[in-house]
Structure formats: C-alpha cells, structure tokens
Amino acid sequence: MDIIGIIQEGVVKGVEALYGASIAGDSVSMNATRSEFEGDFTVVVFPYTKMARKKPEDIGQELGQFMLDTVPQVSKFNVIKGFLNLVIDDSFWQQFLLETVKDSDQFGIGAANGKKVMVEYSSPNTNKPLHLGHIRNILLGWSAYKILQAAGYEVVRTQIVNDRGIAICKSMLAWQRFGEGETPASSGIKGDHFVGKFYVKFEQAFQEEYKAWQASDQGQAIFTEKAKEEQGEAAFFKAYKNTYFNEYSEIGQAARAMLIQWEAGDEETVKLWKQMNEWVYEGFNTTYENLGVAFDKLYYESDTYLLGKSTIAAGMEKDVFYKKEDGSVWIDLTDAKLDHKIVLRKDGTSVYLTQDIGTAQLRYQDFGVERMIYVVADEQNYHFQVLFETMKRLGEPYADGLYHLNYGMVDLPTGKMKSREGTVVDADDLMAEVIAEAEAASKDSSEISSFTEEQRKDIFRKIGLAALKFHIIKVQPQKRMVFDPKESVDLQGQTGPYIQYSYVRINGVGKRAEREGVSWEQAKDYVSLEPAERDLLRNLYQFPALIQEAAADLDPSSIANFCYALAKSYSKFWHDVSIFDAEESAKAFRLLLSKVVGSVLKNGMDLLGIEMPERM
RNA sequence: GGUCCCGUAGCUCAGCUGGAUAGAGCAACUGACUUCUAAUCAGUAGGUCACAGGUUCGAAUCCUGUCGGGAUCACCA
Questions:
Q1: Torsions phi, psi of A96, nearest 5?
Q2: Nearest nt to A167, CA vs C1'?
C-alpha cells in the first residue's frame, strides 16, 4: 500500500477510536507539507471539529499521537492551527529508494491494462508546409501517446491527411501555369515549401485578377448595385471575395474545374495531384523526423471523403436522422443543447461531419480501439461535440471513448499568426533557429569543444529541440499561449535544457562512481536523511501516480512541471550536499538517489518527446 | 445575440477533486566557482489572484452576475 493510503487509513482509524465517528479514507484531506514546516505530509483536521467537538489544535494533537502510536511509518508530528504535519520515518524513504533503484528504468511505468486507444495528432493540409500551430498539436499528441503507453495502454498513432479539395487544386493549377516544369529537386526547395510556394502564387494571381476586375465596368456595376449604404468600396470588395471567386474569377473557375476533374478521376489531373502530394509528403516526413515523431497508420481524406453515407442510410431507419423536403439529411441535436446539423446535401454528397463518422467507423474496424483521441485545436470544439453526440445516437460501441483533446491557439508577442499577413512561424525555420541558438550558446563550453563534429551536432539538436518543445508543452493544453521566439530559445531557468543539465550532471557522477568502483551495499546503512534528500525522494515518490493522472487527464504539462520540479530539487541537492566527499554510506546512498533521479528525468522527458544528451 | 474557453507579479506560466503567509522562471539588483559540469545555487524587490455578490470554519479554486480577451454558431474542411 502506498504511503498516502496508509496515512488515510490511520486517520480513519484514529477518528473512529478517538471520536467514534466513521469517515471514508479518500475523504481525508491531505497535502504535501509546505516547506517552511517540518514534515512530509499534512492532514487537515478542520473537518473533524464537529464530530469531536474539540478545538482543531487538540484534535491535531490527539490524532497525531494516535498516528505516532499506531502507524509505524510515522516518526514525528507537529500541529499548527488545524494542520497536522507528519514526518515519515527515514527508513521508509530508505526502503523506497532501495526498492526503486533495482529497476529504476521501469519506475512509474504502469502494467499493461489490455486497453487499446488511438491518438490522431496531425491533420495537415497538403498545400502548404507545417507551422508553429502544427508543432503544438504534434507535440501534444506525441506526448499523449507516450503518456498513455506508460500508463499501460496499447496506442495506435495516426494522422488524417487532408490531401484533396480546392486548396491543393490551387497549388496544382498555379504549378501548371507558372511552374515551367520546376520540381523540388531542380529548385532545391523542400517539397512542402515548394508546393506552398505555388499556393501563394495562386493567391497572388487571384488577387491581381480581382483587383483588375474591381476597376472594370462589371466590377463597378456590381459594387453600385450590391454595396450596402455606408459601405466603402474596399470593405465591399473584401466581403465579396468569395462570391467573386465562385462566380466571376477565371482562375477560380479553373481551380474548381480541376477539382471536378479530380473527382471524376481524370487521369492527367490525378497524376499531377499525386505528384504534388508526393513532394509534400517528402517534406512533411523530414519535418516529422526532425521533430522526432512517427505514425503507425495514415488515413487520407481522398480515401475517406466518401465514407459515412451508408451509415446515414442505416441511421435513417433508426430515426437518428431525418430528411427535409429538398432531400437533404439532418440530425436534430437540440435536446443535447446543440443544433440541427446537415449530414447529406440534397444531391446526396457528404459533408465534413459525414466523413468523420465514416472515418471513425473505419478506424474501429481496422484496430478495434475502445478509445479515440483527436488532438485538434479548440476552434473545432463544436464540431467534435456534434460528432461525438451523433456517434452515441448511432450506438457505436466506442462512442463513450471518443475524446477531443483540444488546445488553444498559439499567439505571437505581436498578436495572432495570420497566413495572409505573413506572420506565420514556419516549423522548419523554427527548429533550425533553436538549434542554431543552442550552438551559439555552447560556444564557450569547454565540455563540448572536445567532441567530434557529429557529436556536437547531435547535442545542439537535442538542446535546441528541448528548449522549443519544453517551452510549448509546459503550458496547459487548453490555454491559449503566447509564443515568444526569444524565450523559446532560453537555456536557463524553467526550460528543457535546465532539466537536461541536471541529467548530465547525474551522468557525470555516475561515470565517476563507475571509475572509482563505489560499493552500493553501504547505502542501507545511511540513516539520517538531509532535507534535500527527503525532498527528492518525496518528488520521486509521486511519479507513478502522476503518470496515471496525466493519462487520465491527457495533460502533458503536468509531466513537464514535474520534471522541472525534480530537476530543481536535484540542483538544490547538488549544492547542499557533497557526494564523493561524504562518508561511504552517504556516498552510496546519494549515488543511488542520483541514479533514480536520472532515470526518472530521462523517462519523464521522454514522455514529452524530449531527448537527453549524455554531456553538454 | 446563443453556446463554450480564458483572465494569477512588468512579461511567460504553475497552483484549481476548497485548506496554512498565492509559487516558479524571465527581466532588475546582491552574493557564491583552486570543489561531483556556475546552462547552477542563495538572497532582495515585485500580487486588491479582472470586478461584485454568494456558499463555507476556510475561496485563486465551487455557484451567480458584470467587465475584458478568444473561439464557434457554413449544404468549407
């Protein structure tokens, strides 16, 4: 039994014995003791004043004495106001360390629970490269995968690739018109950036065309006819852009024609589409690889965009859906505080929601997962509410296991990222920048100067990416965050590299212990723990429960904060006590403690997708 | 306008299943390297936890309202 449970049980028995009242174990309010007081755990005794009809101080004294007498792990106590601070005996921590160190690599990793879960954590469009927003998405998803796995789940990692639609047609058309046979290889541009370049070219060409049209007789006539009173010319044409694209634009019409040809399976169009997507995938794969993430299964929208229709037909019979006079099919979710939502157009074609219904079913057929987690930005909260509610009504067996891990948008210090205004931070550029920063900051490190070029590059990559990833993932997913590029490359303070540094120190003492041949046996003779040591042990002790909690909440930021707290605690320990100058039992104990801290830091950071260097 | 999310130090963030004097980092200032890596540590300064009510022995945390920021309310994906 864990120490929290032992204490709670002690309190339950104490309240029973002293005051004749029965309370539930998990109702016992407990916290870690604040650092300014002596103790490891604190029991709040205010709740027992009524049943005891005594002052909180007296209850604390009585309960404390009872715990001291009956719970062997409690070695001391003190009472301040209504707070009973319990000191856990050194032998308990001692034993905990000696147990843990036997298999420190596996410490905290939960046993397989036989449950299967799918995490979808990337859903890129294939018309442009990945940016900072995708990075947050991918890091969260990757970490969720790692955490779920550590908690005992079997996890299938997937992405849905939005490889069809008007956007990619725009890139295709622009390439046809302006590309002059250029390829990523011939131009030396990474494939996804290459295709993105033509997407931008399309937009430019469209804007030019639109500008010219605005000045034309037809454009002016439309403005005079349709503009609302008080609406200026600029405002009108801004609002009219989509209509223009659909009804008047030559290049817009050409792009739409291309989409229709694609849907009809036109050979040449499909060939070009495949070629452009291939280029994009090459680029994406490089980015994913640099970020250190991978997938087990890819789903393509071009394969799934027609799915779901048969389900709608089946759902009609169960009255999940209803048909309007015009032939379109809807679902009424007003009783779930949602609205009516269309699932099939009057021409029988499917919409976004329909595709997602079909895709979920396909995934269940493919893998039999009982949970599916979608890592998608919070702008789609409503869509997922509708999707999940629909799946429930369809009676899908996994419907209760559907979960939208939503996250807030990433802002820049200058405001929102807007692709139209060119303020989007490119994923590849950003990674290159943080790695370059790590290199620049390592200039005067004598440690690194002796390394080979290859080793150095590896270390800079690990440090730079740790800075970037930690900076993003330490923020709770649901919160909108401000991403300051300057802060993201910080290597000091509450950062990834700070944690790496603690690990590297531990690695250093481990190496020295190996050289000097320290005898671990004597660790069991070390009896009087220093505050810094107890603090580390308390931190370590939480790790297994934290993994389960992080998996239940799908919250990687809690792991990030834990890793930082542990590293900070170790830094304090490093300064407060000496390892190799200490007597033999203390030396052995501290080395074992360091070893476990090192393992937990490494495993904890791995849960965030962050690698540790051995030296830095 | 309806619904949902957010508002904590100058800045970036913790803390939110109610518990002690609300914590870190950055930025500023002071001190500590002949010592296991100073990418470190210790200290100073910085707060009406948006505001107003309510519940409670006790509220940053729960409830209601107000204000501010954001998202969404497409036969787009």
A1: -60, -45
A2: B77
Summarised one tens digit per residue, pLDDT across range A355-391 is 999 999 999 999 999 999 999 999 999 999 999 999 9
A546 Cβ nearer than 7 Å to chain B strand: no
pLDDT at position A446 over 80: no
What strands lie across the sheet with A83-88, from one edge to the other?
A30-32, A41-44, A83-88, A74-80
Residue whose C-alpha is closest to residue A160's, from A301, A283, A33, A284: A301
pLDDT of residue A71: 96
Band the pLDDT of A1: cuts 50, 70, 90.
low
What's chain A's average pLDDT? 93
**Could you give the CA distance from residue A185 to residue A166 in angstroms, rounded to a whole number?**
25
- Which ranges constitute the DSSP H helices of A421-495? 427-441, 446-449, 453-473, 485-488
**Distance, Å, A379 CA → B74 C1':** 14
| B41 C1': nearest CA residue | A575
Strands A410-412 and A481-482: parallel
Q: Is the CB of A80 under 7 A from strand B?
A: yes
Q: Is A445 within 8 Å of A456 (Cβ atoms)?
A: no
The separation, in Å, between residue A554 CA and nucleotide B5 C1' comes to 17
Show the 3-state SS of A139-160: HHHHHHHHHHHHCCCEEEEEEE
Give the predicted TM-score (pTM) of the model.
Answer: 0.95
